[in-house]
Design goal:
binds S-adenosylmethionine; binds iron/sulfur cluster; 18 helices; pyruvate-formate lyase- activating enzyme; Arc Repressor Mutant, subunit A; single chain
């Protein structure tokens, strides 16, 4: 499928955003206040056809540290600490509810982490019942709501999954990363294959609608051969969806990543080779390649959304629920309404203090300008559809695309003309089409439309694109 001249593409290995938002998180700042957030929430209550709600709950606690972890997590075995956190999330729900119209329906509900199943079954039940009584969910007659939870198979019991199912969850996403023993040891995540298989079996027995498994390529000691064995096992397990993440190694931001030795990491050429063969293995097995790092069975909603050009990208990756208002609760979580991003405090202490003072716990955020809206749409369509149609963007935003993006369409180093010569994209008078190889470097392509990418201080915050 892909012909990769690995040497040719090595030059594209540079720091770059993953574009789960635009502008990306380094642009969020403290000039954006709780009042700005509340103003925007209140504005969302007016008008016809109000968007449905997406709810995200961040449950940061984990039992042990995975050395590769880039998530906002806290390692603890202190049950009182977890109980205290649940109490404060409930407070945040109450506070948010005072600003939102009561009849707005939830279309999507996600628990992420950390490890939500580090809560025990009773705690799951406690928090989920509170959420269920505080919000109205879409009825099954109108498609119902998508309720998903991230789990870690290593500390899971069937009772956890029963508690989630009884609380209305219908989708499960679990971390696997890699089945190879040597890799698991190097990342401090020992997860024998039978534990993953057992968890999948329980999920199926309990009648969940969908299972996603997470893999990471670029971890220490991975080779094309070793990772192909992992992918073969995943194909045999046959989940509905697979996320294949590029390992974001940022030890200057996440100190524990220094426990992974640079010299043990696969070099960029090997990473591209692993990616290429994994894509081939998974597509040969019948999975559809979605966006830059997801795979789904052909009848899965993600595959259908891709076909219908209704795919959408947010902080959880690719999604089918475009146009919802995303309210994110818990420490570090980021809410997204039409015109703003708002991020909560990062520490329990600040988060609790704000809630004790009855103040929405927004630490910082961002209000989009018209230019941000235009660039966000361009980057989102590129990341989801792998093509751009200039005319539809010109009509939507009243711009002349080629004039507006004269710099992005330039012939400089790493610019789109060079990418055309390197067979990553096809440029025409009407638009841009991303070629197969370009999909693997879609972050680099999108960077040509990012209005902030030249800022040196931001570059230091991004992982490498290959
Ligand atoms: C919150 S965890 C999933 C649930 C649970 N905590 C677990 O690990 O099984 C989210 C996923 O992010 C991915 N991830 C974490 N750190 C990463 C990194 N540095 N680079 C790429 N992916 C990463 C992993 O695939 C992980 O499964
Ligand atoms: S990968 Fe998952 S289990 Fe491991 S530390 Fe990160 S959030 Fe916790």
């Amino acid at each position: 499928m892909f012909e990769i001249d690995l040497k040719k593409y090595k030059k594209y290995d540079k720091p770059g955003p993953r574009y789960t938002s635009y502008p990306t998180a380094p642009q969020f700042n403290e000039k954006f206040t709780q009042e700005d957030y509340i103003d925007e929430i209140v504005k969302t209550n007016y008008g016809n056809n109000l968007p449905d709600l997406s709810l995200y709950f961040h449950l940061p606690y984990c039992d042990t540290l995975c050395f590769f972890c880039g998530c906002n997590m806290l390692i603890t075995r202190n049950r009182d600490r977890i109980k205290e956190y649940i109490k404060y999330v409930q407070k945040e729900i109450d506070l948010l509810r005072t600003y939102l119209l009561p009849d707005r329906k939830v279309a999507q509900h996600h628990w992420g982490g950390g490890t939500p199943t580090h809560l025990n079954p009773d705690e799951i039940d406690l928090l989920a019942s509170y959420i269920n009584k505080s919000f109205e969910f879409k009825e099954s007659a109108s498609g119902g709501s998508e309720n998903s939870c991230e789990i870690d198979p290593r500390e899971l019991t069937k009772a956890h999954l029963e508690a989630l199912k009884n609380s209305g969850f219908n989708r499960i996403s679990m971390g696997v990363q890699d089945f190879n023993d040597k890799v698991q040891k190097a990342i401090n995540r020992i997860q024998p294959e039978d534990i993953t298989r057992q968890a999948v079996e329980w999920v199926r027995e309990l009648g969940y609608q969908s299972i996603n498994l997470d893999l990471i390529y670029g971890l220490p000691f991975q080779t094309a051969k070793s990772f192909a064995d992992t992918v073969d096992k995943i194909i045999d397990i046959s989940p509905d969806r697979i996320a294949l993440f590029n390992y974001a190694h940022v030890p200057w931001l996440k100190k524990h990543m220094a426990l992974i030795h640079q010299e043990d990491l696969p070099i960029p050429e090997v990473k591209l080779e692993i990616l290429k063969s994994s894509i081939e293995q998974l597509t040969d097995a019948g999975y559809v390649f979605i966006g830059m790092d997801h795979f789904a069975k052909p009848d899965d909603e993600l595959s259908i959304a891709l076909k219908e050009k209704k795919l959408y990208r947010n902080f959880q990756g690719y999604s089918t629920n475009a146009g919802t208002d995303l309210y994110a609760l818990g420490i570090t979580s980021i809410s997204q309404l039409k015109n703003i991003y708002a991020q909560n405090y990062k520490t329990e202490k600040e988060y609790y203090k704000s809630l004790d003072d009855e103040i929405i716990p927004t630490a910082k955020g961002y209000k989009l300008s018209e230019d941000d809206h235009i660039r966000r749409e361009v980057i989102m369509r590129l990341m989801c559809d792998f093509e751009l149609d200039f005319k539809s963007l010109e009509e939507k935003f009243h711009i002349n695309f080629k004039d507006y993006f004269a710099r992005g369409l330039n012939s400089g180093e790493g610019g789109l003309r060079e990418m055309q010569n390197d067979e990553l994209v096809e440029l025409s008078d009407d638009g841009i089409k991303v070629k197969d190889m370009g999909r693997l470097l879609i972050r680099n392509i999108a960077m040509n439309f990012d209005g902030y990418i030249e800022r040196k201080e931001d570059k230091a915050k991004y992982s490498r694109t290959v």
